[in-house]
């Protein structure tokens, strides 16, 4: 690897302007440099120019087979077969064909469902119906011009998935989480026969994610003995018609805790939040708002969107515009409301942040800034080849997140038993130590070495020439009096 540092991308913050105020605490004289993507500046300049017109030219020549690997990994993680993915992508020759072609794929799966149902094959029929649901979900991912199509696809995905769920996931059940004057739909799935209450992981989705998608990420958490609740946040998925998606939806956990009153096999003292993208931002805000939360995990979250949004993709701006409830606010004004700069200082629980050096949706520096702001409560896991939401690394980061949650719970139990109180910074340090020793980060879980996976290192163990170091603890620094 080249030992010279890459030049800072053009979205990198100005140090004097963006340096966060930090609480006083022990300072480490040695910093750990994170490996950056050498082509990031060029890639971000290209993304900023990628509008509908340029996308149409590219797709006309090469079709949607040019879809980035991260997006491909996202669709494959849903269970869509690789051959179906390639066939559908090959048929897409312009941006406005994305939804139509994926709806056609969904219709073909529904035809297969009817054939299987006629042949009295209930499980195969349910599988076809589930794939139809997820094809409808994929159809709305890149539809920014037609709200009616988005709503139709989301409604179809939610309905078909709910019909397939009893056959495909009999251990899961649908619940409705009260939120203000309405309810948010969710799925709950337990890790199997329970003899005692388990901890709960609440999965918070991003702007174009849904509970049907995050539900498929539950495997590693279930393997760790955790119950999972996959929730549709306001304005997303089945809750598209529910207004209120914004910086003030940090109270969604109130409804979750209300539901837990009727759930004797879930330990309400061990509730964690895991969010991706905008859901990661929401997870931090929930952790700051609600002291009942055990710990939080944020995957490629936006930290201070207003500082870089002017350099974002036109497609991202269109997506954010669809989330703005107040017509008087433009996306830039709305983005400023999502800043975590002040919110992070109210967090009092351990937080694990995942960052990807090849993220072209949210600048990778956002994860670093959040970890810095959180100080000793924050731990950063860095993926040098990871893109937005780390879709290509789903098995790895979900395993690490599950290890983190169980480690925090164990550390808190030890502290409470030893001293009768729990210091969150000490718990974070204990969980971090366990995470370092865990096979989820140190040894190979999947049969071959994963060079792009994250591992944690302490600052005093850092080799300045080790550009393979893929995660670090960012310690709290003295107040800058700014």
The CATH topology of the largest domain: Rossmann fold
**DSSP strand content:** 5-15%
- What is the CATH superfamily label of the largest domain? Alpha/Beta hydrolase fold, catalytic domain
Order of helices and strands: HHHHHHHHEEEHHEHEHEHHEHEHHE
Number of strands: 9
Distance between the termini: 38 Å
The protein's oligomeric status is single chain
Largest sheet: 9 strands, mixed
Summed up, the helix count is 17
Mean pLDDT value:
83
Structural class: alpha/beta
Instruction: State the CATH architecture of the largest domain.
Output: 3-Layer(aba) Sandwich
The best one-word shape is globular
At the first level of CATH, the class of the largest domain is: Alpha Beta
Uncertain runs: 1-31, 440-482
> Order of strands in the sheet with the most strands?
1-2-4-3-5-6-7-8-9
Helix content: 40-55%
Task: Please explain how this structure is put together.
This protein has a 9-stranded mixed sheet with strand order 1-2-4-3-5-6-7-8-9, with helices on both faces. It has helices spanning 15-18, 40-49, 52-62, 69-77, 82-90, 98-118, 122-139, 147-168, 211-214, 219-223, 252-260, 278-289, 314-323, 331-336, 365-374, 394-419, 424-437, and strands at 172-179, 182-189, 198-204, 227-231, 266-276, 293-299, 351-356, 378-383, 471-473. Residues 1-31 and 440-482 have low confidence and may be disordered. The chain has 2 domains: 53-170, de novo design (two linked rop proteins) (Up-down Bundle), CATH 1.20.1440.110; 171-304 and 339-482, 3-Layer(aba) Sandwich (Rossmann fold). Strand 1 and strand 2 (182-189) form a beta hairpin. It contains 17 helices and 9 strands. Helices cover 41% and strands 13% of the residues. The protein is an alpha/beta fold and 482 residues long. The longest helix has 26 residues, at 394-419. Helix 6 (98-118) packs antiparallel against helix 7.
């Amino acid at each position: 690897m080249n030992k010279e540092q890459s030049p800072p991308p053009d979205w990198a913050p100005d140090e004097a302007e963006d340096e966060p105020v930090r609480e006083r605490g022990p300072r480490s004289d040695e910093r750990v440099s994170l490996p950056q993507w050498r082509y990031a500046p060029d890639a971000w300049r290209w993304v900023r120019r990628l509008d509908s017109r340029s996308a149409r030219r590219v797709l006309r020549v090469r079709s949607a087979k040019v879809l980035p690997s991260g997006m491909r990994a996202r669709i494959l993680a849903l269970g869509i077969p690789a051959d179906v993915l390639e066939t559908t992508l090959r048929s897409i020759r312009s941006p406005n064909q994305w939804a139509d072609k994926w709806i056609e794929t969904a219709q073909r799966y529904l035809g297969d469902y009817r054939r299987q149902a006629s042949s009295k094959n209930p499980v195969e029929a349910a599988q076809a119906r589930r794939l139809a649901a997820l094809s409808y979900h994929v159809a709305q991912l890149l539809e920014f011009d037609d709200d009616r199509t988005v709503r139709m696809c989301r409604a179809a995905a939610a309905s078909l998935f709910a019909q397939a769920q009893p056959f495909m996931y009999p251990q899961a059940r649908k619940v409705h989480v009260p939120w203000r004057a309405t309810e948010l739909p969710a799925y709950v799935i337990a890790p199997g026969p329970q003899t005692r209450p388990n901890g709960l992981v609440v999965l918070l989705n991003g702007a174009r994610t849904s509970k049907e998608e995050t539900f498929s990420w539950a495997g590693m958490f279930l393997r760790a003995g955790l119950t999972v609740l996959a929730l549709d946040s306001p304005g997303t998925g089945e809750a598209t018609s529910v207004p209120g998606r914004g910086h003030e939806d940090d109270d969604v956990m109130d409804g979750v805790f209300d539901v837990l009153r009727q759930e004797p096999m879930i330990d309400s003292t061990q509730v964690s939040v895991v969010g991706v993208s905008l859901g990661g931002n929401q997870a931090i805000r929930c952790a700051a708002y609600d002291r009942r939360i055990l710990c939080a995990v944020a995957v490629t979250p936006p930290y201070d969107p207003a500082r870089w949004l002017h350099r974002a993709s036109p497609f991202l701006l269109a997506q954010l515009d669809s989330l703005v409830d107040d017509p008087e606010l433009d996306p830039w004004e709305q983005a400023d409301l999502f800043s975590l700069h002040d919110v992070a200082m109210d967090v009092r629980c351990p937080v694990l942040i995942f960052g990807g050096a090849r993220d072209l949706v949210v600048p990778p520096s956002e994860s670093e800034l959040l970890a810095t702001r959180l100080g000793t409560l924050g731990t950063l896991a860095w993926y040098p080849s990871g893109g937005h939401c780390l879709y290509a690394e789903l098995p790895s980061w979900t395993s690490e997140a599950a290890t983190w949650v169980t480690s925090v719970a164990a550390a808190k139990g030890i502290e409470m038993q030893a001293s009768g109180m729990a210091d969150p910074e000490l718990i974070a340090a204990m969980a971090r130590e366990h995470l370092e020793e865990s096979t989820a980060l140190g040894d190979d879980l999947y049969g071959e070495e994963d060079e792009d996976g994250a591992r944690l290192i302490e600052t005093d163990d850092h080799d300045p020439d080790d550009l393979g170091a893929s995660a670090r603890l960012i310690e709290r620094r003295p107040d800058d009096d700014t």
